[in-house]
């Protein structure tokens, strides 16, 4: 059966604690109650795309453990096809440790677990990658697996390089990517750790990559679309975020769903900044991911 969006990547259980401020090196702080929330960048994006009305298949690995069962059930409850979400014996499901401070900013440490076992062979057996109109990729799985998925895709390839790879990114991958979606920090790392801060310098760096187009997410400043040697800034709504966890994931999902619907990149980014902003008004990663109707309602209520 054809799918609108094939999502290839990580599934994690998020262990979240709210704190007054994120601790510095050597500091211990007291936080609120521990919450266990379904997460992982690709699982978040799969759920977000499904909530935005598209058929979605998730390709990834979980452990043969309670956390894995928890994540599979959550994906299926949200309408995501999990036929290619594979069990991995003797390796635990991925876990993200997240501290969220009062202003909504967060710090995250990820233990990849089974995510690190997703292989090129797994990709070859996952038919939704070739069938999907859009294939969403990120960087919480081995880079060679990301390349294999980009090669296998016949639809539009989106790569969200989060977290930015510490190793050199294969040039072949950037050649295969149709839409690159980094945040400003990830853009700088991909560009050789050269700092950029103005819209002009961000645009110039984005133009150096061989991928077809780039959308740089800029947090409260919105996003910058760089395509066909032109740059368009999309401002974000002015809000006071409660929790920024998951905002980038919902942004990527909104871009993917918009491209399935035939919108151009600027229209897609205009919608995506609305979706991302609405995500920050609710705590947690997947609990905050909105449906299309909720995007407008949350921003209106705010």
Characterise this structure.
This protein has one domain (5-20, 34-301): Ribokinase (UDP-N-acetylmuramoyl-L-alanine:D-glutamate ligase). The longest helix is centred in the C-terminal third of the chain and has 15 residues, at 265-279. Helices cover 34% and strands 24% of the residues. The chain is of the alpha/beta class and 302 residues long.
Can you describe this structure in just a few lines?
By secondary structure, this protein is of the alpha/beta class. The protein is built from 11 helices and 13 strands.
Q: Main attributes?
A:
34% helix, 302 residues, single chain, UDP-N-acetylmuramoyl-L-alanine:D-glutamate ligase, alpha/beta, 9-stranded mixed beta sheet
What would you call the shape? globular
Uncertain segments: none
* N→C terminal distance: 40 Å
Structural class: alpha/beta
Order of helices and strands: EEEHEHEEEHHEHEHEHHEEEHHH
Q: How is the largest sheet built, in terms of strand order?
A: 5-4-1-8-9-10-11-12-13
**How many H/I helices?**
11
Note the main sheet: 9 strands, mixed
What is the CATH homology-level superfamily? Ribokinase
At CATH level 3, the topology is UDP-N-acetylmuramoyl-L-alanine:D-glutamate ligase
Estimate the strand proportion. 15-25%
Overall tally of domains: 1
* Mean pLDDT over all positions: 94
The radius of gyration computed from the alpha-carbon positions, rounded to a whole number of angstroms, is 18 Å
**Helicity level:** 25-40%
The CATH top-level class label: Alpha Beta
User: Count the strands?
Assistant: 13
The CATH architecture designation is 3-Layer(aba) Sandwich
